[in-house]
Each structure stands twice: as structure tokens, then as C-alpha cells.
Specification:
With 442 residues, the chain is α+β, with helices and mostly antiparallel strands. Helix content is 36%, strand content 21%. It is elongated.
Length: 442
């Protein structure tokens, strides 16, 4: 590796395949080498702070011998390469060919920018069932880096991840592990595409608001077909727009949302990161009067048991997890389920986790809001009143135009309300769908 390549790599920051070490610690070093060998390999750079500031490091003969001892006593043994460049030292760790590897009898795996201890059976189960083919690291030969790559979304990610944008795009993509044989890998496609369904039909997200507690009647429905971050933000905003807020009068008048927003964010982002992208299923958000469901295909990652939730973390899409871990969307690996549980406990509400081909998080909705049913009925009544008022003013308005004029409603939501008004005898359609007009009867 040349000096400029190394400096550019440091500017990208720690991640799935890169670890910074300010000093020499024999115990943590053995853990990191073992974790990289059990994942896809990586580099450890001595002389760099976690923040990316270069301090420099001089490797002694004794320390060099200790590194060789670490890899020799690993089970099975491993070979690594040590490079000295200017005032830095780089250990190049290959992906192990005889996984799983252990160090001092313990097993570690690289999860995002962290190394996590797992049992041997957890690791073996993961490798046997999920680790053979990694969807997010597979090169996508259908993606054209010139025509299909969204520069705005790329720059937005760099800003979110606090990565300098004064490097060439190809260098950043390479250092992030997103280029393979000059093709963008699937993780990069999900992040920087214009429209995800062009490459993965299963990448769409469907959000539905139902009437009551069953799937019988749809009030509103929206399908999002953008890049991963946009789909996440759009789905999150859809959920928020359909739930309720109340005011708490203590010393000051403050707002409290019906469900903890951080729990919704966590469950939704987990659905995007940990889902099985080989499955034809898609992420589904279902909102009922009494609950909110967030489902993603794939169920629990092999090697994990239900009782492990909130304790350890394994991901089908380790590279995708690494990318999102660089942003504020993802916090410390393995703690998301615990944060969801704790947030719902503070609200005195239940949350349920199910795994049966899909992984589903079900949030109980609070019944004390007036109730939720009354609030929903009141919201629907206000919407129908707005539609009647607008149609009186302009009988030629289309569903799309009505959706643009009314806050927090889609075309499907307008259709539901128009059908409801027709059944109640308050409006009727005169003439064909195209070229006709509405007549308000009340």
C-alpha cells in the first residue's frame, strides 16, 4: 500500500474492514484479529486515534513478535502481513478460510465497526445458513455507475457519516468496500440508486392504514420506491402522520407522541438493515386502531435465538450495517431491541417480537387518547369535510389534486373517503372517471 492510499483510507474512518489503534494492547489486538478473520478480513492501523487523527506509532521487535504469537496460537492458526509506512503500522488480516476462528478459547465476529464475542455454535449456525452468500457484498452488473448513481444521495450519505468529500468518488467507494471489479455492490445500489425497484422489486416498502383491528378495509396506502434512506424516512413520516399527539399540562404545556419515536425509528431501521434481500417479500408497515406492525422478510438470522434479542447482534447484511452504523440512524450493535423494550416500558405499553419467516415488531397503541378509535373517527370526519368543501368550490378536482390540497393524505386515502361519501349519499360522480365531475348532494 502506498502512503497516499493509506491516508485516503484513514479519511474514510473506522468500519467493517478497518480498525484504528492509538497504542498497543495485546488482549484487544487478539480479539480484533480473530473478529476480522471470522468476517471478511480487514486492516488494523496503529498510530491513529478513533477520531482519525494521526499520532504515529513505532513498532518494536518485541511487539512484532507478540503479533506473530497471537496468530500462531489462534485456533486454527492464521497468517497476517505487517506493513510499516512512514510513522504508521498496518496489519493486513485476510478472510479466514477455516472459519470459525478462536483466540484464547473465545470466538469473535466483526459487526459494523465493532468486534463482538459469540459462542462457537452461534458462529457455526451463522456461517452455515447465512454466511455462504452475502447479498450486500455481491457485485451488481446491472447497475451503471454513470447513469444509475445518484450523486446527491451519495453526498448526503457522506455528510451523515461525517466522511470528507474532497476525495474522488471511486476512492471513497473502494475504501467503504462498495466497489468490486469496478462494479457497485448491492449495498451501494440500495443506498445510491434513483429507484430501488429497477434492480430489486423486493426493495419497495408498503405502508397501510387499516380501519379497525383487521385487514378488511384500507383507509390509506402508500408504496415507497426510492433509495434505502429515503424509503426509511418516508415510511417513518407515514407512521407519524397516522398516529396521535396529546398535550400534557404539568408546569409547562408539552406534547407527547402516542408511541415513543425512537422505538419506531429503531424497529424500522432494523427492518431495512437485517432483512433477507434474497426473499421476494418486502418490508410492510401495518397500522391498526390498536397496534402498529413493522415486518421484514427473513425472520431471525440463523445462529440467533429469540432469547438472544437485545443481547447479541448478527446481521445478514454486514456491509450495509457498517454503512448505516456510520450515521446517527444506527447506534451500538446489539442494543436496539433493548432500547425498544425500555422505551415502550416507559409508556406502559407492550411490544411483541415474532419470527416466522418474517421478523415482526408489534407496538401496542395506547387506548387512553380519547380513545384512539374516537380520534381516528374525528380525523376521518375532518378529512371528509375538507373534501366536500373543496368539491363544492371545484367539482373537477381529481384524486391527485385533492391529495395535494389536503395535509397528510395520499391518493388511496382520498379514494377511501370518496367511496365513503358516495355510500353515505353525500356526493355522486357525473360522467366518466376522465372528463366527468363531482356533484355534492348535501
Amino acid at each position: 500500500m502506498e502512503e497516499k492510499e493509506l491516508i485516503d483510507l484513514i479519511k474514510t474512518g473506522e468500519g467493517l474492514k478497518l480498525e484504528f489503534k492509538e497504542g498497543f494492547n495485546i488482549q484487544s489486538l487478539g480479539r480484533e484479529i480473530c473478529a476480522f478473520a471470522n468476517a471478511d478480513g480487514g486492516k488494523i492501523i496503529f498510530g491513529v486515534k478513533d477520531s482519525g487523527i494521526i499520532k504515529g506509532f513505532r513498532l518494536t521487535n518485541s511487539q512484532s513478535s507478540q503479533i506473530q504469537t497471537i496468530v500462531r496460537i489462534m485456533e486454527p492458526a492464521l497468517n497476517v502481513e505487517i506493513e510499516k509506512l512512514k510513522n504508521l503500522v498496518v496489519i493486513n488480516i485476510p478472510e479466514g478460510k477455516n472459519k470459525p476462528y478462536s483466540y484464547t478459547g473465545k470466538y469473535y465476529l466483526r459487526i459494523g465497526a465493532n468486534s463482538q464475542q459469540l459462542t462457537r455454535s452461534e458462529l457455526r449456525g451463522f456461517f452455515q445458513e447465512e454466511g455462504l452468500i452475502s447479498f450486500d457484498e455481491k457485485a451488481n452488473k446491472d447497475f451503471d455507475l454513470e447513469k444509475d448513481f445518484d450523486e446527491y444521495k451519495f453526498k448526503n450519505f457522506l455528510k451523515l457519516a461525517n466522511i470528507t468529500d474532497n476525495l474522488e468518488k471511486e476512492i471513497i467507494l473502494k475504501n467503504l468496500g462498495l466497489l468490486k471489479n469496478n462494479y457497485l455492490v448491492n449495498a451501494g445500489v440500495l443506498m445510491f440508486c434513483h429507484r430501488v425497484s429497477k434492480f430489486f422489486l423486493q426493495g419497495k416498502v408498503t405502508c397501510v392504514l387499516f380501519e379497525g383491528t383487521s385487514r378488511s378495509n384500507i383507509i390509506d396506502k402508500k408504496e415507497f420506491d426510492d433509495d434505502l434512506i429515503s424509503n426509511y424516512e418516508n415510511a417513518y413520516n407515514f407512521i407519524l402522520s397516522k398516529l396521535n399527539t396529546r398535550y400534557i399540562i404539568e408546569r409547562y404545556r408539552t406534547e407527547k407522541f402516542e408511541l415513543p419515536k425512537n422505538a419506531i425509528r429503531e424497529a424500522l431501521m432494523n427492518a431495512f438493515i437485517h432483512r433477507d434481500y434474497f426473499s421476494n417479500g418486502h418490508i410492510q408497515v401495518n397500522i391498526f386502531i390498536d397496534s402498529v406492525e413493522i415486518s421484514s422478510p427473513g425472520g431471525l438470522v440463523k445462529g440467533l435465538k429469540k432469547e438472544d434479542l437485545g443481547k447479541i447482534s448478527l446481521s445478514r447484511n454486514n456491509l450495509l450495517f457498517d454503512l448505516l452504523s456510520r450515521t446517527s440512524f444506527v447506534e451500538k450493535a446489539g442494543t436496539g431491541i433493548t432500547r425498544i423494550r425500555n422505551s415502550m416500558k416507559e409508556y406502559n405499553l407492550n411490544v411483541k417480537f415474532e419470527s416466522n419467516g418474517f421478523f415482526t415488531v408489534t407496538f401496542e397503541r395506547e387506548r387512553v387518547w380519547g380513545t384512539v378509535k374516537k380520534t381516528t373517527q374525528k380525523t376521518t370526519q375532518k378529512t371528509t369535510q375538507k373534501i366536500l368543501k373543496l368539491l363544492k368550490e371545484n367539482p373537477l378536482l381529481s384524486r391527485k389534486e385533492l391529495a395535494n390540497l389536503i395535509e397528510n393524505i395520499t391518493e388511496d386515502g382520498v379514494k377511501y373517503n370518496l367511496d365513503k361519501l358516495k355510500k353515505e349519499g353525500k356526493i355522486k360522480r357525473v360522467g366518466p372517471d376522465k372528463g366527468g365531475h363531482w356533484e355534492v348532494l348535501e
